[in-house]
Amino acid sequence: MCKTVQTLQSPIQMISHLSEQVITTYEKISNIVHHTPVLSSTEFNLATGSNVWLKCENFQKVGAFKFRGACNAVFSLTESKAAKGVATHSSGNHGQAIAKAANIKGIPAYIVMPKNAPKVKIEAVKGYGANIIFCDSNQKAREDTLARVVDETGAYFIHPYDNKEVILGQATAAWELLHEHPHLDLILTPVGGGGLLSGSILAIDAFKSNRKNTNCHVMGTEPEQANDAYRSVQTGILQSLSPEQINNPTIADGLRTNLGELPFSIIKAFKTDIVCVSEESIIHAMRYIWERFNIIIEASCAVPIAALLEKKITPKYANIGVIITGGNVDLDALPWNRH
Amino acid sequence: MCKTVQTLQSPIQMISHLSEQVITTYEKISNIVHHTPVLSSTEFNLATGSNVWLKCENFQKVGAFKFRGACNAVFSLTESKAAKGVATHSSGNHGQAIAKAANIKGIPAYIVMPKNAPKVKIEAVKGYGANIIFCDSNQKAREDTLARVVDETGAYFIHPYDNKEVILGQATAAWELLHEHPHLDLILTPVGGGGLLSGSILAIDAFKSNRKNTNCHVMGTEPEQANDAYRSVQTGILQSLSPEQINNPTIADGLRTNLGELPFSIIKAFKTDIVCVSEESIIHAMRYIWERFNIIIEASCAVPIAALLEKKITPKYANIGVIITGGNVDLDALPWNRH
After folding, report:
1. Which of A68, A323, B100, B278 has the most other CB atoms within 10 Å of its CB?
2. What is the pLDDT of residues A67-108, one digit of tens each?
3. Mean per-residue pLDDT for A329-335?
């Protein structure tokens, strides 16, 4: 569905071309996005054996880092393109993020949502003044409906991760974190479609170009039950979720998505490692963060925390940053009550 | 139990004498306490009709503002007094706060706890290296046991709120908030023993002495089901919880305590208003903050939020700060699952 990867001369050239744009991206959106706080805990450091800083994107607008990418995509459009509005399909954070960004920009947003989407998410999108177009709850219906909406309105489709401007927007979370904590050895993110992970790679690359004395690495973390990014990195070929992984989905619902082509190009070029964790360890890590940090995080955010608590990250990294991706949780369906 | 109020020449003299000490208190403990972040939300502002900033003391060390007071009390002791250690009785945040502060100072702490205290709280106090002395679960047993411990060890008893240094420590939360948001018209706090409310009064008074252009007020908020501070202010005489309020306690368990004498002197001298809210509105407000801010707050913190959401605060205040007091919650006993 409209997945277009730019023709590239070489992966390294592509990255340096993209990473050069991180600074201008940050200049463009820094007055619109929240500069989110960074939290740490002595007890958590003792438990992990590293100094860990949590970049709290669960306090971002719409409660998730997704707002950064949506915001950059919306504010990067030419005025004539923007005038016709923006469109996407989403039952999750990306739809809210596009709706909110379009609302701030003062342009129409068309969000295709499945009929059975949670009422609270429908209300949130409505609250940002977006047009909601309901469809059946399957991928084909979503894509067909979106194609029709784009055709009828001329709105610009913003993909949740296979989009250069979205990736650059996501890069600004790691960019902010590195400026506050330039001594970091490693940044950990979850990986679903790969927008945040590839954006974080670009941020570090841009930071290195500016400050020669940093040697920060980046690593993706993924549920074993949705390990398509891990398999893609291992084989060098873009993989999808297996039928078993689709029928028995991970608790980390934000990561139940196939890795995108553009994010994979960046991840591959940078030889980025992916670490996988079990469902049980994700639930344990989620509750651990709720109890120790007093913050609400989604199961998807708990994936890098699980990797740290399970000691799956090599101890050579003394100072670690983690992007806490979002906090939109149904309080009536907490995973420790369901398992 | 060791409740000593200083002999005062006049209430106003007392306040100005105490408020002069806020700056030196902050200088003393600012490198030990966390400078906690402040959060806001457009949706919450729309819901309340004011611009509201939440000072997140649920991210303070031990997860509660209580660490500020405990820290100042411990670090204000002379070296000879400190050497014998500190003692208190507590089944809540104050015990953890004293244990942690003593641990940082490197002196012994003796915490009297009821036998039936939650295991997680016992483990936390142990984790800070404190000595725990168990007693029966009633006020007399707690006080008798504490008196024996103080007698045997020579440790210095630190009352949770009827203590000048504790109140000055609590003042530093509002002090930080005012420096970041000097345009505030009002600061709201919950009131239990009154340490935080009276401390916030001192902070504003100290701030006014430094910056003549501020006109910030302070107001206490209290559950109807524990309205002893409200009744004390109305009658001008220190009141206690009624038998009905003791037998049918508020969900805001941190506020199930009688107003202290020293805090009341300050509250009375400053003619501070107290606003009361229902149990139902506290539970609603607690869940509202969890969902909108993605932070975990105790029921006690939700009391000022309830006052705002119920429009019980006069609309003349456009810019309001709220001290979010703590986030130590049993995730297996959330109030919306119990009611």
Report:
1. A68
2. 999 999 999 999 999 999 999 998 789 999 999 999 999 999
3. 89
Please indicate whether the domains covering B11-64+163-338 and B67-157 agree at the CATH topology level.
yes
Which are the contacts of B309, defined by CB distance < 8 A and separation ≥ 6? B47, B48, B281, B284, B285, B288
Res A291 pLDDT > 70: yes
CATH number at A11-64+163-338: 3.40.50.1100
Q: Active-site positions of A?
A: 66, 91
Beta strands in chain A (DSSP E): 38-39, 51-56, 86-89, 109-114, 131-135, 156-157, 186-190, 217-223, 273-277, 319-324
Measured in angstroms, the CA of A58 and the nearest CA of chain B are apart by 7
The number of CA neighbours under 13 Å toward the Cβ of B288 is: 22
Instruction: Please list every residue in chain B whose beta carbon sits closer than 8 Å to the beta carbon of residue A63.
Output: 294
For chain B, domain boundaries: 11-64+163-338, 67-157
Tokens 């993909």 correspond to: A159
Of A127, A296, A334, the CB nearest to B295: A296
Q: Which of A273, A268, A198, A189 is nearest to A230 (CA)?
A: A273
Residues of A at the B interface (Cβ-Cβ below 8 Å)?
37, 39, 43, 58-59, 63, 127, 287, 290-291, 293-297, 327-329, 331, 334, 336
Residue A8 pLDDT exceeds 70: no
Question: In this structure, what are the phi and psi dihedrals at residue A231, rounded to the nearest 5 degrees?
Answer: -70, -35
Q: List CB contacts (< 8 A) between B58 and chain A.
A: 294
Q: How far is A121 from chain B (nearest CA, A)?
A: 12
What DSSP line would sit under B116-151, residue for residue?
A: TS-HHHHHHHHHTTPEEEEE-SSHHHHHHHHHHHHH
The verdict on a CB contact (< 8 Å) between A43 and B127 is yes
Closest chain A residue to the Cα of B60, Cα to Cα: A293
Does residue A3 carry a pLDDT above 80? no
In single-letter form, the type of residue at position A313 comes to I
How far apart are the CA of A329 and the nearest CA of chain B, in angstroms? 8
ipTM value, please give it.
0.89
What is the structure's pLDDT at A212? Answer: 63
Per-residue tokens: B154: 């020579």
pLDDT value of position B2: 43
**CATH T-level fold of A67-157:** Rossmann fold (3.40.50)
Q: Report how far residue A202's alpha carbon sits from residue A167's, in angstroms, rounded to the nearest whole number.
A: 9
Indicate the residue of B37, B43, B296 with minimum beta-carbon distance to A37. B37
pLDDT digits (tens, 9 = 90+) for B199-214: 999 999 999 988 666 7
Among the ranges given (A141-155, B71-85, B110-124, B271-285), the one the predictor scored with the smallest mean pLDDT: B110-124
> Are A294 and B334 within 8 A, CB to CB?
no
Q: Considering the entire predicted model, what is its pTM?
A: 0.91
**B331–A287: do the CB atoms touch at under 8 Å?**
yes
B127: chain A residues, CB-CB within 8 Å: 43
| pLDDT for residue A118 | 80
Residues of chain B neighbouring A59 (CB-CB closer than 8 A): 39, 293-295
Tell me how far CA of residue A97 lies from CA of A42, A53, A92, A260, B203, in angstroms: 33, 25, 9, 19, 39
Of B37, B59, B287, Cβ closest to residue A331: B287
